[in-house]
Design goal:
Mean pLDDT: 78
Structural class: alpha/beta
Helix content: 40-55%
Number of domains: 2
Number of strands: 8
Radius of gyration: 25 Å
Order of helices and strands: EHEHEHEHEHEHHEHHHE
Number of helices: 10
CATH topology of the largest domain: Spore Coat Polysaccharide Biosynthesis Protein SpsA, Chain A
Distance between the termini: 23 Å
CATH architecture of the largest domain: Alpha-Beta Complex
Oligomer: single chain
Strand order of the largest sheet: 7-5-6-4-1-2-3-8
CATH class of the largest domain: Alpha Beta
Strand content: 15-25%
């Protein structure tokens, strides 16, 4: 076994039984180019229901560098990555590479990240130059990054997912962030340090289907915006001021018509009815925005554990039991 620096791969898995072994073979093939490094492959089974855990345990029997963490239920992609980061931090990894296991993130690119890290970068994030996704996925992703760039108080690079390398000293800071509604790419952007972009071409999914349907994409977008921006709260005040100014102007107009042009005065019941429902809708939206922030605060105050593990099978870097 190499006595070089310890590089841990954090690999979340959810219903990837059809392609997980193919992914591992390609990852192993890519990492053989660096025999001077000690690699650990940390797979986090996020409550899969398709037999992924059996494949992972079989891989561990064949490759002692494989560590398997299995959740007691599905906690979501961001929490799965967090569990992997926690493990890598406890294991004393010198660097961590986060990547998905559907082969959209090419394993060879991770070795380019390692080279950037060895040249002095603390964080190397993979920025998509091209991506083989549907038009709808590209359009919604573009809209999300545009809104996030306009609203977020922390600059978060566009066309960047969770595929990245994090140095040990940056990881020391990342694991201190324990919020439940997590947006990891925002957290990593927020910590600072020397961060570099690595352009790459994202491949098509090897097998299975996307684990981010529209509902999860919207939830992730909400976590990104609400977790790193107070713009929605500020917008409420701006909308309220705008409506108040328009109401004053409308009132002055109505008074002027009544005083100077009484013959043109019209009893505007329809206008009042539409205005009432419009303002009611605006108020409900504002209450919903405030409620989103209050709800996030409530969840954090409860301070419940981020995840629960049903199984831990350590690789060769740590001693443990299944």
């Amino acid at each position: 076994m190499s006595t070089g620096k310890h590089v841990a791969y954090v690999l979340p898995v959810y219903n990837e039984a059809d392609g997980i072994e193919t992914f591992h073979k390609e990852l192993v093939a890519a990492t053989t180019a660096r025999p001077d490094l000690r690699f650990e492959f940390v797979y986090i089974n996020d409550g899969s229901r398709d037999g992924s855990i059996e494949h992972l345990l079989a891989m561990r029997e064949q490759d002692p560098r494989v560590t398997v963490l299995s959740f007691a239920r599905n906690f979501g992609h961001q929490i799965a990555v967090t569990a992997g980061l926690d493990h890598a931090h406890e294991a004393g990894a010198d660097a961590v590479v986060i990547m998905d296991t559907d082969l959209q993130d090419p394993p060879a690119v991770s070795l380019e990240m390692v080279e950037r890290w060895e040249s002095g970068a603390d964080v190397v994030y993979a920025q998509r130059r091209t991506r083989k996704d549907t038009f709808f996925k590209k359009a919604t992703a573009g809209a999300f990054y545009y809104l996030l760039d306009r609203m977020a108080e922390t600059h978060i690079p566009q066309n960047v997912g969770d595929f990245r390398l994090i140095d040990k000293r940056a990881l020391d800071v990342v694991v201190k962030y324990r919020e439940h509604n997590r947006f990891l790419r925002g957290i990593v952007a927020n910590i600072g340090f020397r961060q570099e972009a690595l352009l790459f071409d994202r491949d098509a999914r090897f097998a299975g289907e996307s684990k981010y349907p529209l509902s999860k994409m919207i939830r992730l977008a909400a976590d990104g915006i609400l977790g790193f921006s107070t713009f929605p709260l500020k917008a409420i005040s701006r909308v309220g001021i705008t409506i108040s100014v328009l109401s004053v102007l409308a009132g002055l107009y109505a008074i002027a018509v009544r005083l100077f042009f009484p013959a043109h005065a019209v009893a505007g019941w329809a206008f009042l009815g539409v205005g009432m429902f419009f303002l009611g809708g605006i108020q409900l939206i504002m209450i919903g925005v405030i409620g989103s922030y209050v709800g996030r605060t409530y969840v954090e105050v409860l301070n419940r554990p981020l995840y629960s593990l049903a199984l831990v099978a350590h690789g060769e870097h740590r001693q443990g039991s299944e």
